UniProtKB/TrEMBL annotation:
Gene3D superfamilies: Exo-inulinase, domain 1, Glycosyl hydrolase domain, family 43
SUPFAM superfamilies with a match to the protein in the record: Arabinanase/levansucrase/invertase, Concanavalin A-like lectins/glucanases
Domain Glycosyl hydrolase family 32 N-terminal, first and last residues per copy: 37-354
Keywords carried by this UniProt record: Glycosidase, Hydrolase, Signal, Vacuole
The name this protein goes by in its record: Beta-fructofuranosidase
Domain Glycosyl hydrolase family 32 C-terminal: 376-550
CDD domains for this protein: GH32_Fruct1-like
Catalytic activity, as annotated: Hydrolysis of terminal non-reducing beta-D-fructofuranoside residues in beta-D-fructofuranosides
Compartments, record wording: Vacuole
Secretion signal, residue range per the UniProt entry: 1-22
Main subcellular localisation: other
Pfam families in the cross-refs: Glyco_hydro_32C (PF08244), Glyco_hydro_32N (PF00251)
Length: 557
């Protein structure tokens, strides 16, 4: 079984944290601190695994400050992926091979049930090398102590392959080939050519670089936090990382350092040649397939066997506030809600949905009756704690004749959303939700759809518009967007948003498109936050269902 870090260390490796000088923030006056998203009590974080019924979240963490630096592997455990108990750091600098930092990596569970960690260390020359650690006491389900190999480092960049020693990091979860050899990939680059360097080992200790990388793409820059795993065709069930067969496809995900976005490819794995063959060509900085079209980076999946048979995705959500504000808050970075992830029936993209366990936090369900949302109208959803909520709305479109014509040059969904934000009236749309909104709508974050007509089909655009999210314009107020593969003629349009004070995770088309935003309203905080459904188009849209819940605070110590 295989599971990884800043690439979410997954054993459940959680996003590793980063941290500078710490200024203590009091528990009071923390309107932006999340209530049910994982984050350490303070400072900078970033990073999964299931062992003896316990989920482990490892994460890059700066114990000294709320900015990047002084990186160790933070460690928390959970029985339900919602409530978390902290432990002492699992790995911290103590050997020459990691004396300047313990960076990202992954956890793999070997066949005899023994978990091991591969991670990137920074040596005295500031070179990136790969190290190995194992639990000191396997009878301890919390795995509170880890022992490093005296043979570290196990892998180092070779001068003959032209790999720069500062571009060789983030080993993946291992997978076992039919030939009995373990394999991992490491993110790298040569000039601007991104690489997934492949290593092989019989014993998980002695590693040899393969003749060719698993995959590479020109002009894509440094590949961080790679992830490689199989998915079943036409099934939402997850499978172990080492499985390969006729009913599977493979996913290669990379975090592009140049764009700070996570991109993935679906394709096939040729075990004989040890190469990945993409269905859609190489990675590039404008690749269409992304896990999340907002703030979501350094992600990692892990396979959960037992009775659930699911693959779970973790991702790191960084701040949109300034470094100065992060230091004042005393913390920076949160984990997105873990998501189940599987291959869509089309075979052309992945689908994501928040894990079922998050629903245990739901309180006070509010349901609105089926109704028409007329063009230009705003409808408040009352009775929920709008700063800490889960809302699902389903729309039905009947006036598609009013859809705007999609210009052939409008190929970039983010740019299109920024040009046609929530305040720009259209034909069918914008319609959706106004979250973390002030009572007079001076502040709001809009998550919405627009529908366009293109040739003989309709195109659905999903946007997350942060342009009016806060009067504090020092924040990053980028608007995000994605095209959603939904046919509004024959399908209803669903939208789900998880709202948690300063984070809004939205899932369009039942998880076909995901957009995560960080926002810091000055008016719409805590009890002053409101939630609305809205339609700023000329055409009417129908609300088929709307359900909203206040969310309890998770136990994250």
């Amino acid at each position: 079984m295989a599971v990884s870090s800043r690439c979410l260390l997954l054993f459940i490796s959680l996003l590793l944290g980063y941290g500078v000088l710490q200024l203590e923030a009091t528990a009071d006056n923390q309107p932006y601190r999340t209530s049910y998203h994982f984050q350490p009590p303070k400072n900078w974080m970033n990073g999964p695994m299931l062992y003896k019924g316990i989920y482990h979240l490892f994460f890059q963490y700066n114990p000294k400050a709320a900015v990047w630096g002084n990186i160790v592997w933070g460690h928390s455990t959970s029985t339900d992926l919602v409530n978390w108990t902290p432990h002492e750091a699992a790995i911290y600098p103590s050997q020459p091979s990691d004396i300047n930092g313990c960076w990202s990596g992954s956890t793999t569970i070997l066949p005899e049930g023994r978990p091991v960690i591969l991670y990137t260390g920074i040596d005295p020359n500031n070179h990136q090398v790969q190290n190995f650690a194992m639990p000191k006491n396997l009878s301890d389900p919390f795995l509170r102590e880890w022992v490093k190999s005296q043979d570290n480092p196990l892998m180092a960049p070779n001068s003959y392959n032209k790999i720069n020693s500062s571009s060789f990091r983030d080993p993946t979860t291992g997978w076992l080939g039919r030939d009995g050899y373990w394999r991992v990939i490491i993110g790298s680059k040569i000039n601007q050519k991104g690489l997934a360097i492949l290593y092989k080992s019989k014993d998980f200790v002695h590693w040899k670089e393969a003749k060719n990388p698993l995959y590479s793409s020109k002009e894509s820059g440094m590949w961080e936090c790679p992830d490689f795993y199989p998915v079943l065709i036409k099934s939402p069930l997850g499978i172990d990382t080492s499985i390969d067969g006729p009913n599977t496809k493979h996913v290669l995900k990379v975090s592009l350092d140049d764009t700070k976005h996570d991109y993935y490819k679906i394709g096939s794995y040729n075990q004989n040649k040890d190469i990945f063959i993409s269905d859609t060509g190489p990675f590039h900085k404008n690749s269409r397939l992304r896990y999340d079209y907002g703030k979501f980076y350094a992600s990692k999946t892990f396979f959960e066997g037992n009775s659930k048979h699911r693959r779970i995705l973790w991702g790191w959500v960084n701040e949109s506030s300034s470094v100065e504000d992060d230091i004042k808050k005393g913390w920076s970075g949160v984990q997105a809600i873990p998501r189940s992830i599987w291959l869509d029936n089309s075979g052309k993209q992945l689908v994501q949905w928040p894990i079922k366990e998050i629903e245990m936090l739901r309180l006070k369900e509010v349901n609105l009756p089926k109704q028409v949302l007329k063009g230009g109208s705003v409808l408040e959803v009352s009775g929920v704690t709008a700063a800490q909520a889960d809302v699902i709305i389903t729309f039905e479109i009947s006036e598609l004749s009013k859809a705007e014509v999609l210009d052939s040059s409008w190929t970039d969904p983010q740019l299109l959303c920024s040009r046609k934000g929530a305040s720009v009236k259209g034909g069918i749309g914008p319609f959706g939700l106004l979250v973390l909104a002030s009572k007079g709508l001076q502040e709001y974050t809009a998550v919405f759809y627009r529908i366009f007509k293109s040739h003989n089909k309709y195109v659905v655009l999903m946007c997350s518009d942060q342009s009016r999210s806060s009067f504090n314009h020092e924040n990053d107020e980028t608007t995000y967007g994605a095209f959603v593969d939904v046919d509004p003629v024959h399908e209803k349009l669903s939208l789900r948003s998880l709202i948690d004070h300063s984070i809004v995770e939205s899932f369009g088309g039942e998880g076909k498109a995901c957009i995560t935003a960080r926002v810091y309203p000055t008016l719409a905080t805590d009890s002053e936050a409101h939630l609305y459904a809205f339609n700023n188009g000329t055409g009417n849209v129908g609300i088929s269902t709307l359900s909203a819940w206040s969310m309890k605070k998770a136990q994250i110590n």
